[in-house]
Amino acid sequence: MSAGVPPTLDIDGDTATLTLRRPSQHNRIDPDDPPLICRHLERVRGHTTLRLLVVTGEGDKTFCSGYTLARIGTHLDRSLEDMLDALEALEIPTLCLMNGSAYGGGTDLAMACDFRIGVRGCRLFMPAARFGLHYYPGGLRRFVTRLGPTATKKIFLTAASLGDEELLRIGFLTELVDRRDLSATLDRYRQDIRGCEAAALRSMKQHIDRIACGTWNEELGRAAYHASLRSTETLRRLASLDAG
């Protein structure tokens, strides 16, 4: 058995929080964790009132150190990759609250989220090339579509450790804040998302990701736009603006 506690899911009102709970092992991901996290994601999908999923780690040093290194060579199924793809495809907005640094697969766990809020002093390190490992396709796709090829090449082809300001500059971090401001920053995102119409958020997230991956269909995008114009909620909100 591995030390520490498996990842947990807590639901509070319209926000779900997925927490990695192995701080003494730098919140590593063990082989039994991906199927459990996938079940947590299914729970999130089953709660139609949820507006936001927060992904974070326990402690104040490391967000996630990635997949257990000792098992990489002996546990080569697609469970980790499938879990990260499922997180990326979640319909509601997702926010990685990076309580510390990210290493290996932990960087992709953060990348699979829509927003990444990092604490000052956090770092990123992707050691795959040092192990002679060609990273799995889903992870490379995420980095390239979200950061671009230049930043992705620096991360993967140099295996250099990147500091917090560079992570903000290249777009890996959405925001960089002092640790004492993490909670307030999360509250601000939560309130902003609550002020938006849920169906519009889900639809636009889906289409933005398709555009980024080059799989977008403009006809479907225009159909989603026209459907929103006819929705009862959109008409109600527009009417309230006119009344004001």
Question: What do these coordinates show?
Answer:
The chain is of the alpha/beta class. The chain has two domains: 189 residues, 2-enoyl-CoA Hydratase, Chain A, domain 1; 47 residues. Helices cover 49% and strands 17% of the residues. It contains twelve helices and nine strands. It has a six-stranded mixed beta sheet with strand order 1-2-3-5-7-9, with helices on both faces. Helix 6 packs across helix 7. The chain is globular.
Largest sheet composition: 6 strands, mixed
Oligomeric state as shown: single chain
Output mean pLDDT: 92
Domains, number:
2
Instruction: Give the termini separation.
Output: 61 Å
Structural class: alpha/beta
CATH architectural grouping of the largest domain = Alpha-Beta Complex
Helical proportion, percent range = 40-55%
Please give the radius of gyration in angstroms.
19 Å
| Parts with pLDDT < 50 across at least 5 consecutive residues | none
Order of helices and strands: EEHEEHHEEHEEHHHHEHHHH
Level-1 CATH class name of the largest domain: Alpha Beta
Q: How many DSSP-defined strands?
A: 9
